[in-house]
Write a structure and sequence with these properties.
The complex is a heterodimer of chains A (about 325) and B (about 250). Chain A is an all-alpha fold and about 325 residues long. Helices cover about 70% and strands about 0% of the residues of chain A. Chain A has a single domain, classed as ABC transporter involved in vitamin B12 uptake, BtuC (Orthogonal Bundle), CATH 1.10.3470. Chain A has 13 helices and two strands, in the order αααααββαααααααα. In chain A, a hairpin with a 3-residue loop joins strand 1 and strand 2. The radius of gyration of chain A is 19 Å and the shape is globular. The two termini of chain A are about 25 Å apart. With about 250 residues, chain B is α/β, with parallel strands linked by helices. Chain B has two domains: about 1-80 and about 200-255, Rossmann fold; about 85-170, 3-Layer(aba) Sandwich (Rossmann fold). Chain B is built from nine helices and eleven strands. Chain B has helices at about 45-55, 75-80, 100-110, 130-140, 155-165, 185-195, 210-215, 235-240, 240-250; strands spanning about 5-20, 20-25, 30, 35-40, 60-65, 70, 85, 170-175, 200-205, 220-225, 225-230. In chain B, the strands form two sheets. Chain B has a six-stranded mixed beta sheet with strand order 7-8-9-4-10-11, with helices on both faces. In chain B, strands 1, 2, 3, 5 and 6 form a five-stranded antiparallel beta sheet that branches. In chain B, helix 4 (about 130-140) packs across helix 5 and helix 5 (about 155-165) runs parallel beside helix 6 (about 185-195). Classes of the chains: A mainly alpha (about 325), B alpha/beta (about 250). At the A-B interface, helix 7, helix 8 and helix 9 of A face helix 2 and helix 3 of B. The structure holds adenosine-5'-triphosphate and magnesium ion. Magnesium ion binds near residues 47, 48 and 90 of chain B. Adenosine-5'-triphosphate binds next to helix 1 of chain B.
C-alpha cells in the first residue's frame, strides 16, 4: 500500500516512451534524478545549495570528453563523471559546511560560478559550442545505446539506481541522524553528533548523484554544454523540488517532469519562459508551500482523519 | 570541606564578552559529584551563557573548564556530550516531526556505530525499541509512543526531552529552566523525574521557580550581571541580604 505511488510511477515510466518522444523523457528522467539528489540535501539535510549545476555540468563534461576524445565506454565515462562530481562535492562541502543558512548558499553559489568560469575558458569544454556530438557507445561493449528507445531504458535504469540509493539513504540509520540534524541541529549536537561530518557526507552523496544525472544527460542529447553548469540550472532544480514538494521522496520527480514539460511547450515564447517560471516560483513559495506531492499527502491525511475516528493526544 | 576529587565540574575565571559587553565575568563554579546544583539569578544574569560555555556551544573569552579532572576548554560541543555532560535547552528541544519513540532512538543509536551507514535499512534500529520504550514509559509518555513530538503538550515535550537525554546515560545533566511554562501538575512530575535521574548522576539546573529550587537542590549558586553573588545551601543563600536585594530589584520573590 505504501509502495503504491512508486509502483504507479514505475508502470508509467515503463510504457511512457511508446506515447511520448523517448529522448524528451530520458532527459526528464535525468533532471528528475538531479532534483532527487538536490532534495536529499535541501529537503532532508536542511542545506540549501545554489551551486548544484556545478556537479551536473562537471560530470557531464567529463563523460562527454572521455567518450568523444578518448573513446571510453559509457559505463566508465559515467563512473568518472560521478567520481569527479563527488570530489568536487567534497571540496564544496568542506568549504561551505561551516557556514549557516544563507551564507552556506552564497558560498556554494560563489564556488559554482568559479566552476562555470573555468568551463567557459578551458579549452577542452569547447566553450560556447560545448562538446558535440557525444557518442553514446556500447554499454559494457555489448548493448548499443544509439537507438533512442534503448537510450531511454538505459536512462530509466540509471534513474532507478539513483532513486534507490536516495530512498535507502533517507530510510537508513544515517538518514535518521540527518533528519534529526535538519529538525534541530543544536539538539543533535548536544546528543553527541558531530553534525559537520554528517552534512559533508550528505553533500558528497548529493553531488555524486547529481553527477550521475549529468553524465547520463549528456548521452541523451549527445551534448555537453555550458547550460548545464550555469546558474540557471541551479535555480531550475530548486524550482523543480519546490513545485514537486521539498522533503518528499517522489515530489522532485513530479516537479522535474512538470518543469521539463513547461520548458518544452513554452520554448516558443522565448525569454518569456523565465518570466513564467518566476511567477510559478513565487506562487509555490507563497501559497503552494508543500508542492504537488506534499499537498497530495496532506489531502490524503485529512481524508483518513475524517474517515476514521482518530484518538487525539 | 570539599576535596578536589569530589568535584565533577569546576571553572576557573570563566568569562564571556560579546562585542564589549561582558555577559559572564570571572566565574569560578564548583559542582560536586552527585549533587543537584541550582544556578539562579535574574533575567539576563548570564545563566544560559554559562551553560553555553560549559557545553562549548560558545567559546569562552577567558578562563578554563574542568570536567571529571579533564580540561575541556577546547573540546568541541558534540564531544562534551560524548564525555558525559549533556544539556537541555531553555526552549524545549525535541525533533518535532519524529515520533516520541524515534526522538529517543536518535539518542540511543549513536553507540551502535552505524550512524554513517546510509546503505543499511533503518529497520536495523528496531533492536533499540525495547530500551526506547522503557525510557518513554519511565517519563510517563507510554501512551504517546507513536505521536509526533510536535503534537505533544508542552509539559510532555519537556518530559520527552528528559527521556532523550537520559537515553545517553550521561554522568552529568545540565537543565536550562526545565519548569518554565509548566503548570503545577507538570512541575510535580518533572521534579520527580529530575530527582530520580539525580540518584546516580549530577544535575546542574537553571531554574526561576524558587520553590522547585528549594525543594530539589543541595547547592545553589546565585549569578547577577554575569558574576557569582553567593553560593551555598538554600538557607544560606536566601539569608544573604545582597541576594534578597538582587531578587527584589527584578521582581522575583
Ligand atoms: N549571542 C549573544 N550575543 C550577544 N549578547 C548575548 C548573546 N547571548 C546572550 N547575550 C546577552 O548576555 C546576557 C546574558 O544572557 P543569558 O541568556 O545568559 O541570560 P539568562 O541568565 O539565561 O537570562 P534568562 O533568565 O532570561 O534566560 C543578556 O544581556 C543577553 O542579551
Ligand atoms: Mg536563560
Amino acid at each position: 500500500m505504501k509502495q503504491l505511488p512508486f509502483l504507479i510511477m514505475l508502470a508509467a515510466l515503463l510504457v511512457a516512451p511508446f506515447v511520448v518522444y523517448p529522448l524528451f523523457l530520458a532527459n526528464a528522467l535525468c533532471l528528475a534524478l538531479f532534483a532527487c539528489a538536490f532534495n536529499l540535501l535541501a529537503g532532508y539535510s536542511g542545506l540549501l545549495s545554489f551551486g548544484h549545476s556545478a556537479f551536473l555540468g562537471t560530470a557531464g563534461y567529463i563523460t562527454a570528453y572521455t567518450t568523444k576524445s578518448w573513446g571510453y565506454p559509457p559505463e566508465l565515462a559515467i563512473l568518472l563523471g560521478v567520481a569527479a562530481s563527488s570530489l568536487l562535492g567534497a571540496l564544496f562541502g568542506f568549504l561551505a559546511i561551516r557556514r549557516q543558512g544563507l551564507y552556506f548558499a552564497m558560498v556554494t553559489l560563489a564556488l559554482a560560478q568559479m566552476v562555470y568560469f573555468v568551463c567557459l575558458q578551458a579549452p577542452f569544454t569547447g566553450g560556447e559550442n560545448g562538446i558535440q556530438p557525444v557518442p553514446r557507445g556500447h554499454l559494457f561493449g555489448v548493448i548499443d545505446l544509439s537507438p533512442n528507445m534503448t537510450m531511454y531504458y538505459f536512462a530509466l535504469g540509471i534513474f532507478l539506481i539513483g532513486y534507490g540509493i536516495i530512498y535507502r539513504t533517507i530510510h537508513s540509520p544515517y538518514g535518521r541522524v540527518l533528519k534529526a540534524i535538519s529538525e534541530n541541529e543544536p539538539r543533535a549536537v548536544s546528543l553527541g553528533y558531530r553534525v559537520d561530518q554528517y552534512k559533508l557526507l550528505a553533500f558528497v552523496l548529493s553531488a555524486g548523484l547529481s553527477g550521475l544525472a549529468g553524465s547520463t544527460k549528456v548521452l541523451v542529447y549527445q551534448l555537453g554544454s555550458l547550460a548545464d553548469v550555469s546558474f540557471g540550472t541551479s535555480g531550475e532544480v530548486l524550482l523543480m523540488v519546490l513545485i514537486g514538494g521539498l522533503g518528499t521522496v517522489m515530489g522532485p520527480v513530479i516537479g522535474a517532469f512538470i518543469v521539463a514539460t513547461m520548458v518544452n511547450y513554452l520554448a516558443q515564447y522565448g525569454s518569456w519562459v523565465t518570466v513564467i517560471q518566476g511567477v510559478i516560483f513565487v506562487v509555490c513559495v507563497l501559497i503552494f508551500r508543500r508542492g504537488v506531492a506534499g499537498e497530495a499527502m496532506a489531502l490524503a491525511r485529512r481524508w483518513r482523519l475524517r474517515a476514521g475516528a482518530v484518538a487525539k493526544p | 570541606m570539599v576535596t578536589l576529587t569530589e568535584l565533577i565540574l569546576e571553572t576557573f575565571g570563566l568569562t564571556k564578552a560579546f562585542l564589549g559587553f561582558t555577559a559572564v565575568k570571572d566565574v569560578n563554579l564548583q559542582v560536586r559529584r552527585g549533587a543537584i546544583h541550582a544556578l539562579i539569578g535574574p533575567n539576563g544574569a548570564g545563566k544560559t551563557t554559562v551553560f553555553n560555555l560549559l557545553t562549548k556551544f560558545l567559546p569562552p573569552s577567558a578562563g578554563r573548564i574542568q570536567f571529571n579532572g579533564r580540561d575541556i576548554t577546547r573540546v568541541k560541543p558534540a564531544d562534551v556530550a560524548r564525555l558525559g555532560m549533556v544539556r537541555s535547552f531553555q526552549i524545549s528541544a525535541v525533533f518535532p516531526h519524529m515520533s516520541v519513540r524515534d526522538n529517543v532512538r536518535v539518542a540511543l543509536q549513536r553507540p551502535l556505530g552505524t550512524s554513517f551507514h546510509f546503505w543499511r535499512p533503518a529497520a536495523s534500529l528496531d533492536a533499540l525499541n525495547p530500551r526506547a520504550e522503557e525510557l518513554v514509559e519511565a517519563v510517563g509518555l507510554g501512551a504517546f509512543i507513536e505521536t509526533p513530538a510536535v503534537e505533544l503538550a508542552y509539559g510532555r515535550k519537556r518530559a520527552l526531552e528528559i527521556a532523550t537525554t537520559l537515553a545517553l546515560d550521561p554522568e552529568m545533566l545540565l537543565l536550562d529552566e526545565p519548569m518554565a511554562g509548566l503548570g503545577q501538575e507538570d512541575i510535580g512530575r518533572i521534579s520527580t523525574l529530575i530527582r530520580k535521574a539525580a540518584e546516580s548522576r549530577t544535575v546542574l539546573m537553571v531554574e526561576h521557580n524558587l520553590s522547585v529550587v528549594a525543594d530539589l537542590s543541595h547547592t545553589i549558586t546565585v549569578l547577577t550581571r554575569g558574576q557569582i553573588l553567593a553560593q551555598g545551601s538554600y538557607a544560606e543563600v536566601s539569608a544573604n541580604p545582597e541576594v534578597r536585594e538582587a531578587y527584589m530589584g527584578t521582581g522575583h520573590a
